[in-house]
Specification:
- It is a single chain.
- The protein folds into two domains: 77 residues, no CATH class; 271 residues, no CATH class.
- It is α/β, with parallel strands linked by helices.
- The strands form five sheets. The protein has a seven-stranded mixed beta sheet with strand order 6-5-15-13-14-12-11, sandwiched between helices. It has a two-stranded antiparallel ribbon with strand order 1-2.
- It has 13 helices and 15 strands.
- The protein is globular.
């Protein structure tokens, strides 16, 4: 008798364990998961929009069950917190890792090679790269266009001490260091190398975040680079362009830490720069055929005393952090994502700029594309 009661209790508990999560399943279409930072699968549809049987209904049902079964979000968040706070690791971000004091690092395979200095260029490759940049600069100069190359760096190049301890670094020279040295020694291009200024700044400021965005500089870091870029442009142009100073911003200290998988938030109080009285405004219509392209925009500023048109080819370092500042100095600022670098000459002909600012992130190795552009220019000439 006791055995039968025990079996009955076991079966009842088992059925409750199976059924209760189903009873509490999410039935709302288009539900976002805050913990997982994505949209959950919607309810499976038996029929397609044209009334036919949906052959993917079973796959969709499995996806819906996986995402929406009751208490799943709570379990996912709990597991993420246990892994993070107890074992110092992520459950989801395979391309992120923690430093010796919990600093958040971006560590996809290519960037690990970059940090370890295991992808160095040969002397022959460096010569080709330097010659290619010079060809592009000369091409623009012949058109009366000034060319400025801005080299950006990843957090691990400025804060190697933040990197995960088990990732070893070999030597002191990176691939980007090699390229910058070749450009400074073998070309006459206008080069803005941000490394030394950011290394110097970290003695007083925080140019990269410890626990916030691991793939970009902070707003203080971007402000430092912005001022150096504008000073170099002004040196070539009789100091005619406005350069924003700290007094032009409302600077507050805000929590700009990371929101991670599992609903984990890392606090990181950093300076937040907001221009007090911006004059520039977006005029997307001026992009013409590039108006639908990813991360492309145009700013117009009617308050400046110049008619200068600037074309910026840039990654997210500039796209997300410097456009507001730069647009305060020029009548027109056109930003095209650096992925369009292969269309360099077409962009120049289309927008007819007075100045080209060409930015490259350390993680974005576009030297092959730059060499190809230089080859197109040489062939055309």
């Amino acid at each position: 008798m006791l055995k039968k009661v025990g079996n009955l209790i076991f079966i009842t508990i088992f059925m409750l364990m199976c059924s209760v999560p189903l009873l509490f399943s999410n039935l709302i279409q288009g539900t976002p998961s805050i913990a997982e930072q994505r949209m959950l699968h919607g309810i499976a549809k038996v029929f397609t929009y044209d009334g036919n049987f949906n052959p993917k209904v079973l796959d969709e049902f499995n996806g819906w069950i996986d995402d929406n079964i009751g208490f799943r979000s709570e379990v996912v968040a709990l597991n993420a917190k246990i892994q993070f706070y107890v074992f110092d690791r992520f459950t989801h971000y395979s391309n992120m890792s923690l430093g010796p004091n919990g600093e958040v690092n971006s560590t996809p395979p290519q960037q690990i090679l970059e940090f370890q200095h295991l992808n160095l260029k040969t002397e022959e490759e460096l010569t080709v790269i330097a010659n290619s940049f010079q060809t592009i600069s000369d091409y623009l100069e012949n058109k009366g266009i000034q060319y400025y190359y801005l080299q950006c760096y990843e957090k691990y190049s400025i804060y190697p001490e933040y990197m995960t301890l088990h990732i070893n670094q070999y030597g002191t020279v990176s691939k980007t260091d090699q390229v910058v040295t070749a450009l400074s020694q073998s070309t006459s291009i206008n080069l803005i190398d941000s490394k030394d200024m950011l290394l110097a700044a970290k003695e007083k400021y925080q140019p990269y975040s410890r626990y916030g965005d691991c793939a970009h500089w902070t707003e203080r870091g971007s402000f430092i680079v912005y001022q150096e870029l504008m000073h170099q442009i002004n040196e070539k142009n009789n100091n005619q362009y406005l350069i924003l100073q700290e007094d032009d911003y409302l600077i507050t200290i805000d929590d700009m830490g990371s929101d991670l998988f599992g609903g984990i938030h890392l606090v990181d109080y950093l300076e937040n720069f907001e221009i007090r009285n911006p004059k520039a405004y977006e005029t997307i219509g001026k992009l013409g055929k590039y108006s639908d392209e990813y991360n492309c925009t145009v700013y117009t500023n009617d308050a400046v005393n110049n008619q200068t048109r600037v074309l910026v080819l840039a990654d997210s370092y500039v796209n997300h952090y410097l456009l507001d500042e730069l647009s305060e100095s020029f009548h027109e600022l056109i930003c095209i994502h650096a992925d369009k670098t292969e269309e360099f000459t077409e962009l120049v002909d289309y927008f007819d700029p007075d100045i080209v600012i060409h930015e490259n992130a350390e993680r974005a190795d576009r030297y092959g594309i730059i060499t190809a552009v230089a080859g197109q220019i040489n062939t055309a000439n």
